[in-house]
Structures are given as structure tokens and as C-alpha cells.
Amino acid sequence: MLYTEETVRENLRNRQGKRVFFLGKGDQLTSGARDFLARERIEILPGREAKQERWALLTGGYTEEKPEHMTHLNGDVLVRKDHPRILFRGKLDTFQARLLMAQQVCPEQAGKLQEILDFSRELMACDVLEKPVPEKKLWGHTEEEIRHISHFPQEYYGIAHFMPEASDGPEILQLNLARCAAREAELGAVTAFSDREGNPTRPDLLRALNRMSSMLYILMIERKAGKL
Fold first, then answer.
1. 64 partner at 20 to 30 Å CA-CA among 105, 130, 141, 220?
2. How far apart are CA 154 and CA 149, in angstroms?
3. Contact 72, 78 (CB under 8 A)
């Protein structure tokens, strides 16, 4: 298999608190993927070392077999598949599927949707690897700028806020489904990343998800206004 930078990011693992990448026999890296690993100081390990002989349990102890009702939380730690963080990842996966569908229906906005999709995949890695969400511009805008555009669409597109209707057509309705999926993922993150007092432990993830739902609403406004 030939790994690109994107597929390398998706297959990073956590080993003893450090990010690592397992490269199997016969597998290769693109120059971009190799540069990414070198830049991030991520160690490349032989694929044969990826096999684990035992897994840690969140409740304490270990198991030498991976039960069907359990999955990886991160690294070598197993949890039940109904663990809040696993449920959150499922919602994020659904969100990404909705973005792919929206790209097919809205080819004129596919590039902007791809930027949202790439960022959502980065969020998945930030959860699995337990690293902070990086500060970055999307569509060339800061988080505050995106919030302002979504709150005051009349300033930018000449139309007011609206509620989607069946008559708006498949493009706006598909974008709205993706927006709803982003909101569902955000709610899943609230449940997954809260302490005993209900305070968020990953506000960076919550802000990022809120930002993406705002971006999808902007795309709905953009299409409604006929400005693509």
C-alpha cells in the first residue's frame, strides 16, 4: 500500500504516550507523507510490531483477547463500544459521511466542503491521540470571522436567516443534513468530554464542531442567495 500524508494521519497510533506509525512490509510512503512524519517527529516502526499481545482495560487489569463488544479508546486501552467517546466518534463518522454526500450533490461547493471534511478528520485524530486541536484558518477566515458571517448573513449575502423548506431543493437540504450531523457530533462531544461537575474537558473540540456547523449554514446561505 502507498501511504499519503492523509492516510498516514488516519493511521497514527499512540504507543507509550508518543505518536508512532507502523509501516508494513512492502508498504511505501509518498514524499509528502515522509516529510510529514519527519516534521512531526513521529517514529516509523515495523508493521510486525503493531500486533499486541494484551490490552489494558479502563477498569484496571488486562485482557489477552479483544472481545467483540470492546474497541480501542486509544493506544492499547480497550473500552466498551457504548463508551461516550466511542459514541462520539461514531457521530463524527456519520458527519463525515454526510459531507461526502453533500459534495456529490453540491459540486460547486465541493472544495469548501472538502476543507470541512479534512478538518473533521483532524478532529478524530485529536481525540484518538489526545492532542489539542490546532489553531488554523478555514476558508481563509478565523473562527471569529466565521461566527460573524453566520450571525449576520445579510451583510455578506444580502439575505436574512431562513429555515429550510422542501422547496429549497436537494442541495440546501443535503447541506442542512450535514449541518445537523455536525450538531449531533457536538452534542456527543459534550457528553463524552465533561467532568463530574459537567464542565467541558475538551472545549477545543466543542468550538471546532460549532465552527463547522456554522460553515455549513454559511454554505446554505450562499446557495440560497445564488452566490456560488
1. 130
2. 9
3. yes
Q: Are 163 and 176 in contact (CB under 8 A)?
A: no
How far apart are alpha carbons 214 and 220 in whole angstroms? 10
16 vs 31, 51, 76, 89, 129, CA distance in Å? 27, 15, 9, 22, 11
Distance CA 158, CA 176 (A): 20
d(CA 66, CA 60): 15
Looking at the chain, how many residues does it have? 228
pTM over 0.70: yes
Chain centroid, CA 15 distance in Å: 21
- Measured distance CA(203)–CA(205) in Å, rounded: 5
Spatial distance between the Cα atoms of 26 and 5, rounded to a whole number of angstroms: 17
Q: What is the mean pLDDT of each run of 10 residues along the chain (228 residues)?
A: 84 77 86 90 82 57 62 72 91 95 96 96 89 92 95 95 94 97 96 91 95 97 87
